[in-house]
C-alpha cells in the first residue's frame, strides 16, 4: 500500500517557464519595458588625456556651429551644411573661418516641379551651395545656374587646390520603360 502514495518530482517543461515569463511581463510592464526616459545632450564625456583637444564643426536645426570639446559654442553661422566643412586657409589666401554650406533650399511646395519626389526628406533639396566667411557674408555660390535651377548637392564637396569646387550633385531623370516615381515610394511613406 505505501506505493500508492509515491510522488515523483519532475522539472517543469519549457512552456511553463515561458508562460511564467509572459505573466510576469504582463503583470509588471515598467520592468519589462525598462529604458531611459531622459537622454543626455551636449558633451556627455570628455577625457582630455584620451581625446585630441580640437574644435568641432557640425550643422543642426538649419545652422552650423563651431564648438569646443566642452560643448561651448565658439561661433554660429545661419546656414546648414550637408556636410558643413571649414575651408583650408592654404586654399583661401590665408583667410580663416570660411566654411562651405548650403545657402538656400528648394521650398517643399516646388520640389515636384524640379523632379524631386514629394514627401521625401529635404536633405537633397538645396538650391544653392556656397562659401561664407566668419561674419556669414556669402563669398561664392552656385546652384541657380545648374540644370533645373538648383544645385541638388548630394553629400560631398571639395575646394580644389586650383580654386575650383568639386560638388557631388544629383540629377533626376525619367528613363523610358521604368515605373513612374509614384510606384517607387515605399509603402511606409504613403
Main sheet strand line-up:
4-5-6-7
Query: What is the distance, rounded to the nearest whole angstrom, between the alpha carbons of the first and last residues?
Result: 74 Å
What spatial form do the alpha-carbon principal axes imply? flat
The main β sheet shows up as: 4 strands, antiparallel
Structure class: mainly beta
Give the proportion of residues in helices: under 10%
Query: What is the C-alpha radius of gyration, as a whole number of Å?
Result: 29 Å
Counting H and I runs of at least 4 residues, what is the number of helices?
2
Percentage of residues in strands: 25-35%
Average pLDDT taken over every residue: 77
Ranges with pLDDT <50 over ≥5 residues? Answer: 183-190
Order of helices and strands: HHEEEEEEEEE
Number of strands: 9
